[in-house]
Each structure stands twice: as structure tokens, then as C-alpha cells.
């Protein structure tokens, strides 16, 4: 659980922030009404405060001393202030705050709490800063680190390509224009052949005054462009805007690939993804198991308890399967059928794994409408790859049928096909 220090002397503001922080139960909000209380909290939780949200004017710290203290403790700090002042804004960003928010209604407090959540998401995002100037590169890298991004660096376009090959989880690249060997424009142009705009965000940067340069960058693949010198506030607004766009696309894409009831992948996505897994297994001569799972007596369950209870049961089964088999490709194929693709497992190991999953599921109680139920499934597991995924599903389905005919609640593999 991440601890967030909130320093605010207004009871009304504290009430609003308590309500907003409750939307994120994995945060533990630690409230202080003045600087002295804030210092006590930090001393009680040394090096354990994830971020701080602080009022700029406190009874015992009227001139923003709390900001200096929080930053001295290396705590990412978001400032709450009752008034906007240009000089104060410049001064605060120069000190190294994350951002500042003026107290202008509920939206402002929502924004402040969202910034904390943004910092948490940034911890999982790797960015690449490309610039031949050591000073400029370090400055931009430090701006990213202030917002808790993972940062890697490159001195020019050629170096950047090498860094990308070694860091394929880079999600955002920001590059200067004028560089030796390969400039920023050529870097963006070359990389866009490999990466879509939703795979890698690329932002061009330049101190040149020509208006055509920004259009040139964006026309040839950059997501955005920044002109030097830029203010940290503008920098962060552009970065967050592009990341939120990327995350929205990912959410839409994920929703389109998921079954609306269980949250697992749906059948169409499974077949699309399975073709690539199948190809990879063939090229590497790697075993590939496929399991077809069916909930036992589900039709009877629906008739006895109703379809709403049946949906709850399917959600329970899906959650259990996902928890136990999350490293594999799994989908809800149809009604109470589930497919699981298990690359790297021979038939014996795959049958053993699915059997353990069956045992664990049957041992868990599923509470539906206040009543505890136990759910069971049967499965067929085949490693007969044959000519593709469809024939392998057919083989696994045949084994499933044999298990059902034998009474259910069992997992059969290829060796059981002729029994």
C-alpha cells in the first residue's frame, strides 16, 4: 500500500480529499494540518512516503517551507495553492515540484489526486531521451525522473536505435533535432517504419525557429513537437497528454478483445493470437498443448438457480482460471467453454497442470446469493498440433467428450484417446 502525505489546514478541503482518496483503496492517506505534524509523519515513515500533496500556506509555514521540507526528503511533491502567481509558479518548478494546483473547485482537487495516480503509472513507463548535448539530455532526463519515469539515454540517432534494441519496453522517445550521425528527424522517420504511433510515442525537440520543422516532424511520424526552451509545465502537459491518448487506445483495444462477462479474451482474439503462437512453436520445434475446459452440469445449474447466478458462476470460474493460468493464452470460447494454449508444455505436464487447476477450483467455495457452491470442470488436453489450431481444438474436444461420458470432473490427455 502506497503512503501519500497530505498537508492541509482547511477542514473542508481535507473532507474533499478524503473522499477522493477513498477511490484508490491501495493508497494510505496520511493527513497533517500543519508542518510540525507533517514532519512527525515523515519521521514515523522514513523513506516510505510515495508522494506528498501540500498546501503552500500553513499556520506554522506561511511561506511554502513545507515544499522545501518535502523535497529535501526526496518526496515527489504536488503543491496546492489558493492563488495563482507567475513568479511563484516559476520558483516552485525551479525547486523541483511535480506540479501545482490552484484551489478552484472540486475539479482542482480531482486533478491533484489524479496526479498522484499518474505518478504511480509513470513508475511502469520507460522513456528514451536522445540528445547529443550532455547538459540538455540530463535536464530532460531529470524532468522525467521527477515524475518517476524509468529513463534511458542516447547521444544520437544511431545510439538511440541500439538502446531501443536493448530496451524493447520503451514506450516514449523524445529526441533533439540537430545531432551527428543521425539527426532526430531521420530517427523518427526510420523508427516509424517499425513502430506504430500506439506502440511508441515519439516527440521531436528543437531550438530552431523555423516553423516548418514542427510540421516536418509530425508529418513523418512524430506524435508531438516541443520548441526549446520549454517550461517544465508545458513539457509535462505534452507528455501526459500523449500518454493518456496511448492509454485510452490500449483500453479500447483491450475492451474490443475481451469477453464482456468474464473479462477474459474472447474467441476471435484467441484464434488471432494462437496462430502466431502456433507458428512460433513450429519454428522452434517446441511442444504446444491446448486445453478445452467445460464447466460440469452448467445447464442444470442455470435451470436450478437462474441465468444471473449462472453468470456469477462463470465469472468465478474465469477468475480462477485466469489467476492460475495467467501466463498462458486463455479465452472464454462459448457459454461455459474455455480454451487455454500452453506453449512449452508436453502433454504430461499440461495434463498435470490443468488437473491441479481443476482440484484447486473444486476446493474453492463460490458464494452466490448468499449460498456456498462448489464448481467442477472437465477438460481435454491435446498436443497433436497437426495442421493448425482448429484440428488441435477438435482433438482436445474429443478428449473432453470422453471425460464427460465417463462422469465428468476429470482431465484427459492424448494417452487417453484410445482407452
UniProtKB/TrEMBL annotation:
Taxon lineage: Bacteria, Pseudomonadati, Pseudomonadota, Gammaproteobacteria, Cellvibrionales
> Does the record's keyword annotation contain Ribosomal protein?
no
Tell me what this protein is called.
Diguanylate cyclase
Coiled coil ranges = none
Pfam families to which the protein is assigned, alphabetical: GGDEF (PF00990), Response_reg (PF00072)
PROSITE patterns named in the record: GGDEF, RESPONSE_REGULATORY
Domain annotation GGDEF: ranges: 286-416
Q: Which domain of life is it from?
A: Bacteria
Record's PANTHER family?
PROTEIN PILG, STRESS RESPONSE REGULATOR PROTEIN 1
InterPro entries in UniProt = Bact_response_regulator, CheY-like_superfamily, GGDEF_dom, Nucleotide_cyclase, Rev_trsase/Diguanyl_cyclase, Sig_transdc_resp-reg_receiver
**Segments crossing the lipid bilayer:** none
| Domain Response regulatory, chain residue ranges per copy | 3-118, 126-243
Q: Which residues carry the post-translational modification 4-aspartylphosphate, per the record?
A: 55, 176
Could you list this entry's UniProt keywords, alphabetically sorted: Phosphoprotein, Two-component regulatory system
